[in-house]
Structures
1.
Amino acid sequence: MTSHRILQLNAISTAACGAGMLAESVLWVVASAIVLLWFWADFAAVARFLVIAVALVVEVFATLQFRAAGRVSAAAPQMA
C-alpha cells in the first residue's frame, strides 16, 4: 500500500468519524426535544432548563469539533 493511499484512507476515516460525531450529537439533541415534549408536565422547571442546557452544550461542542476537524484536514500539507 502506497503512502498516498494510506493518507486517503486516513482522510476518509477522519471525515467519517467527524460526520458520525455530528450525527450522534444531533440525535442527542433531537432525543432531548422528544423527551421534553412527551414529559413536559412531569418535569420541574429546573429539570426542563437542565435538559435544554445539556442538549445545547452537546450540539455546540459537536459543531466545534466538526469545524476543527475540517480546519485540521484543510491545513494538513498535501502529499504529491
2.
Amino acid sequence: MIRRSLLALAAGLVAAAVHTRLPTVQLQFSTRVETTAHRLNATEDYPPYKRYFTVYFDFPVRRRLPAGELCSSSAGSSSTS
C-alpha cells in the first residue's frame, strides 16, 4: 500500500516537473565569494576571518581551449613528498 502511494507521488512529481519551465543556465558570469571563518576572532586583524575571491566563468571559452591551457596539470593537486 505504501509502495503504491509512493509510486503515485513520484509519478505526480514527474508530471508536474514536465509542465514547469526549467531555469536557464548562464553561460558567462562572474561572482564574488566571501568565506567566513567563524572560529577566528573578528576583532583581530590577523589572521583574517573573512576572505574574498572572484570567480569568472565563461563556458564558450572553456569549450574552445584545450585542457592544458585551461589550468596547469599541477593545480589543485597535493603532494605528500
3.
Amino acid sequence: MSQENGSLVLVGKFRDDAMGCVEEVAASLGIRTALVGRCEEAPEVLAEAAEPLAVVVQMDAEGAPQLFAHVRGQARLVQLPILARFASSTNRSRLRKLPLTPK
C-alpha cells in the first residue's frame, strides 16, 4: 500500500528512537513524516500538507487542546484522524477536558 503525497504529522517532543521507527515504517509505506515541535506551529504545517493522513499529538504539549479545536474547525481536516500520545498514564485525564467540536 502506498500513499503518494500523504503525510503523517507528529506534534510535540518524541524520543529519537521512536521517531526513527515511525519514519522507517512510514517510508516503507510511501508516507512522508513531518515533526512539529510546538502545537502553535502545526496549523501552518497542516495547511501546507497536500494530503495529511493523520496527526499525532503529544498530549502534554502546551496548546494541545487548541490544536484539536483548530483541526476540527477546518473543513478539509474535519475527518483527519487525531492520535493522542500520552507521556504517562497520569496524563490521560486531560483528554476528558479537550473540546470534541469547535466552538
4.
Amino acid sequence: MPYFRVIMHGKGKLFFGFNSDGSPYAVSGFFTTCIIQSFSVDRAKDYAMLRIEKRWKSSEYFGTISGNLVLDIEETEQISAFRYYRAKVVNFLKLGGLIPTIPNAGHSFY
C-alpha cells in the first residue's frame, strides 16, 4: 500500500492566550503535514482531513477557536516507504530515542 504526504492548511480565528502585556495572542491559521498509508490519493486526503480535525477537537486549544476551523488540502504527493521510515527514524533520534513519533506531526502557525 503506498504512502502519501498531504500538506494541509487550516484557517480560522485561533486564540491561544495572552501576551505579557495582556493583549490576546492571536493565530489565524497553520500548515501541517500528514503521512498517510492508503490505497488511493483520494482516501489519503479524506483520512488526513479526519486526522487533523480529530487532533484539533481533542486538543486543549479547540475551545479557544473563535469561529469555524476550515481545512484545505494544499498539496498531495505519493512518497516511498523508505522516505516515510527515514523521517520516522530521524524524528525518533531527535527526541533521544525515547518516544516513537509520526513524521511531520507538527504545525507551523501564522
